[in-house]
């Protein structure tokens, strides 16, 4: 993996940790979503000026984006044989070495999001129940006027 591949992995990782979508990054960098996706995926060359601007948006420095810190997951799917005991029709290669702190923070953020969504759902159910009761009351009132 070359230094720009490392930078792209670090950019993606830091973007996700900060909770930014690719669209958010594209907006902050004044570029289209497709152009940003091409930079992050490696389809488009990542130059130093762009790397410097991305570092600013991610509130870090270029050196941190270029540094190979040894924690990432990378999967390559190649045409060909099967892995041991696996019959996918592909040769899957995995590289592990994830910093536990990052995984813990990501899981914690997801747990908080799930909790928030459950509370939101509960609130909406209560609101729906209240509105149904009000509709029933109005229907009763309308029904009494017709009689």
Lay out the secondary structure.
Elements: H1 3-18, H2 22-28, H3 33-41, H4 48-57, H5 62-66, E1 74-79, E2 90-95, H6 100-146
Antiparallel strand pairs: 1-2
Helix pairs in contact: 2-3
Please provide the count of β strands: 2
Gross geometry: elongated
Q: From the 3D coordinates, which CATH architecture of the largest domain would you assign?
A: Orthogonal Bundle
Distance between the termini: 81 Å
Oligomer description? single chain
Helix-strand category = mainly alpha
CATH topology of the largest domain: 434 Repressor (Amino-terminal Domain)
Return the domain count. 2
Radius of gyration: 25 Å
The biggest beta sheet, please? 2 strands, antiparallel
Please write the string of helix (H) and strand (E) elements: HHHHHEEH
Mean pLDDT: 80
Write up what this structure looks like.
- The chain is mostly helical and 147 residues long.
- It folds into 2 domains: 3-99, lambda repressor-like DNA-binding domains (434 Repressor (Amino-terminal Domain)); 100-147.
- Helices cover 64% and strands 8% of the residues.
- It contains 6 helices and 2 strands.
- The chain has helices at residues 3-18, 22-28, 33-41, 48-57, 62-66, 100-146; strands at 74-79, 90-95.
- It has a two-stranded antiparallel ribbon with strand order 1-2.
- Helix 2 (22-28) crosses helix 3 (33-41).
- The radius of gyration is 25 Å and the shape is elongated.
